[in-house]
Amino acid sequence: MKTDILNMLYELRPEFDFSSSDDFVMDGLLDSFDIISLCSMLEEKFGVTVDGLDIVPENFASVAAIEALMKKSKQHS
Amino acid sequence: MITKFQGKRISSLLGILPETVSNFDDEADNYAFPVRQTMRLKKIMGYHQHRLAKETSTVSDFAVFGLQYMLNNHWITREEIGAVVVVTLCPDHFVPHISNIVQAECDFNTDVICMDIAQGCCGFLLGMMQSFMLLDHLGDKKVVLINGDVLSHKVSKRDRNDFPLIGDAASITIIENSTDAGPVYFEMHMDGKRGNALIIPAGGFRMPSTEQTAVMTDQGDGNYRSLDNMHMDGSEVFNFVQTEVPPMLQSAFEREGKSVEDFDYFFFHQPNRFMLQKLAEKAHLPKEKLPMNLVENYGNSSGASIPITAILNAREDLISRNNRCCLSAFGSGLAWGAVFIDVGNLEHCELISSAL
C-alpha cells in the first residue's frame, strides 16, 4: 500500500520530493485541492469511501497517515 | 430557528442565465498550476463550463429582464404583486436598493413592499422565509422572490480555487398563499464566528476599495487575487458542510417523522460535485434524487442555485405533479438550513437566457 500511495503522490505532484518531508501539507507539497484529488485517486485505487469528516490535512500529512486513513476507510466502507 | 409555515406555495419558477459560456479547458492556462494538475479537478469537482455576466450587467438587469418576461407572458400581473424581495451579495449600489430599482423599472405600485436581503448560498431559504412571513400580511397578493448574483465580477480569473466554480444567474420565484398547501418545515442556523471563511475583504465601509486593495498578489498557494476579490477557504467550508449539514438533516427527519424515502427530490445548494457527493454519502442520501450537475452546466449560482437546479433537473415533474422536496443550503455567513416543502403543479417553470 505504501508504494501505491507514494506513486499517487508523485503522479499528483511530480515536482516534489515527498521522502524529505515530515508533513506534506505544512511543507506546501499538497494544497487543499491536491487533497481532494488524492482522496479521489485513493478511493478508486483501494475501493474505499473516505468519510467527509476525515478529509482533513492531518490525515494527508504523511504516507503513514494516508495508510492509516485507508485502513480506517476500508473498515467503514 | 426551527419553525413551520402553513398555507404557502410556490406557484412559478423562472431561471435567468447570461448567454456567455466560459469553458474550463480554455481557462486552465490562466492559473499558475500545471495544466495536467488543474485538469484532474475537472471530473472530481464537476468543472466544465460556467455562465458569466457581462462586466456591465448587474443583478437588477437580470431581475428586470426576468420580470418583464413574466409580465409579457402573463405569468403574473402588476396588480397581483404585493412585495418584491431581493436576496443578493451583489447590490447595484449601496443605495438605492435593487428591489426599488426593479419596482421603478417594472412600474410597480407604490404600495408594493420592496426589500433587499444580503445573503449568498442560503439566499433561497432565507428569501422564502421572508416571503412566507410577508404573505401573512398580504392577503391575496403575491411575493416575487428574486435571487441573483454576478459574483464573477468579484472573483479573480487567476484564482483556481474560486473562479472555475462561479456562475452568474438569477431566479424569480412567485410565492403565494394557498389554502391547499401543506405545512412547510423550515430550519436555519447561523454562525458568524466562522464568517471569514467566505469573504470579500474590501469594497465596504470597513475597507473601501482603493488602488492598493486592487493589487493582485500571490496568496502563497499559486492563486492570485486582490482584497477586492471574493475568497472562499475551501477546507474550512468543506469541513463546515460535512460537520453541520448531515446531523441537521438527520435531526430534522427524526423531528418530522420522515425518512429519505419520503422525498422525491433533494434540491441542494451546488458548491461543487465533490462536496455534494461527500455530503450525500455522509447523510445517506440517494444520489439519483440529489442532482449535482449545476456547477458543470452553469456554475455555482449562489442563492439562485436551488431553483435553477430544480428547473434544470425536474422541470416536467415540477409542472405535472406534486413533488415532496427537501431543500438544503449552506455557505456564507456561515449559514446552513433545510426546508421540507411540496413543490409541484407549477403554473410556469422555465430556464431562459439573456444577452446580459
Mean pLDDT of chain A: 90
Q: Give the neighbour order of strands across the main sheet of chain B.
A: 6-5-7-8-2-17
Overall structural domain count of chain A: 1
Shape of chain A: globular
Mean pLDDT of chain B: 95
- The rounded distance between the terminal residues' Cα atoms of chain A is 17 Å
Radius of gyration of chain B: 19 Å
> According to CATH, what is the class of chain A?
Mainly Alpha
What is the oligomer described by this structure? heterodimer
Global outline of chain B: globular
The arrangement of helices and strands of chain A along the chain is HHH
Largest beta sheet of chain A, briefly?
Answer: none
| CATH fold field value of chain A | Non-ribosomal Peptide Synthetase Peptidyl Carrier Protein, Chain A
Helix content of chain B: 25-40%
β-strand amount of chain B: 25-35%
Kindly name the structural category of chain A.
mainly alpha
Q: What are the defining features of this structure?
A:
heterodimer; A: 77 residues; mainly alpha; Non-ribosomal Peptide Synthetase Peptidyl Carrier Protein, Chain A; 0% strand; globular; B: 356 residues; alpha/beta; Peroxisomal Thiolase, Chain A, domain 1; six-stranded mixed beta sheet; 28% strand
Textual characterization of the structure:
The complex is a heterodimer of chains A (77) and B (356). By secondary structure, chain A is an all-alpha fold. Chain A has one domain: Non-ribosomal Peptide Synthetase Peptidyl Carrier Protein, Chain A, CATH 1.10.1200.10. Helix content of chain A is 52%, strand content 0%. Chain A is built from three helices and no strands. The longest helix of chain A is centred in the middle third of the chain and has 15 residues, at 32-46. Chain B has a single domain (1-356), classed as Thiolase/Chalcone synthase (Peroxisomal Thiolase, Chain A, domain 1, 3-Layer(aba) Sandwich), CATH 3.40.47.10. Chain B contains nine helices and 17 strands. In chain B, helix 6 packs parallel to helix 7 (273-283). The model of chain B has no long low-confidence stretch (mean pLDDT 95). Chain B has 356 residues and is α/β, with parallel strands linked by helices. At the A-B interface, helix 2 of A face helix 2, helix 6 and helix 7 of B.
